[in-house]
């Protein structure tokens, strides 16, 4: 377990949320939390490569947050929400593959767009909210790069559980733009989010974006094997995360406790996301639910019921698309 990566991710979200708590502005928690997710990228990479990964991911998150804020200002017209969602999942899939980002999926970009788009926002508040996300993203960027200074001060011979060996070396893969497997994954996500979101809306489920997010969580990254077992791991991880959140928040705890849930969840999400994505979702799900709970103050019972129903819906559609993608890969010889 890498303590270093978990600590920086936890600090990235803890500091801004505690400041917002101190000034009684937890209504802005979503923008700070998504800006802080910049620290989830660049894990175990040498700093000359990490600066690229974290910068690309941070810019993508800020674009997603900004589009979500302006979507909220315009009162979430359905056609615009669908258009922006298609753009984020398609562009995000190609971007994550080309820069070999880890996490390799568009999950956090989609989350940022849809959650920020769901928070009522006046036009005068748009730029300050985007500015807050920018400040927190820069803070998270600096934290992510802080290990460079720590390693210089400690010296090359120092061994510490806090300073993990940096072995991951992602390269820029320009062939991703022309790879049919990448566009197959982008197509899966585009079709899936539109179908899952449309069905959730037609059924009158609250917070329909969770069906979309569950779908994105189930679809494998571009060029990864379209494994049913891995998709089932993601479904189980999400459902377990919903149950854990219900157990933690059922008693309507104070804001400081909810912030603690977010910080601990971000720590373990970062530690696990590169090892086992299904296990990471056990913590990513409480992270997302706690941010929603803190930002909107929606009743937990409604959040949990919505999440369970929409997780089943999104994951079910995701499984069907995984099966379809396996058939396409085999019939057209696209499988690696």
UniProtKB/TrEMBL annotation:
Transmembrane as a keyword of this entry, yes or no, is yes
Q: Which domain of life is it from?
A: Bacteria
- Topological type in the membrane: Multi-pass membrane protein
Q: Where in the cell is it found?
A: Membrane
Query: What are the alphabetically sorted keywords of the record?
Result: Membrane, Transmembrane, Transmembrane helix
Sequence intervals crossing the membrane: 6-23, 53-73, 79-99, 106-124, 130-150, 190-219, 239-264, 276-296, 308-328
**Could you confirm whether the keyword Membrane appears in this record?**
yes
Q: Which residue range or ranges hold the Integral membrane bound transporter domain?
A: 196-320
The protein depicted here goes by the name FUSC family protein
Provide the organism lineage as a comma list: Bacteria, Bacillati, Actinomycetota, Actinomycetes, Micrococcales
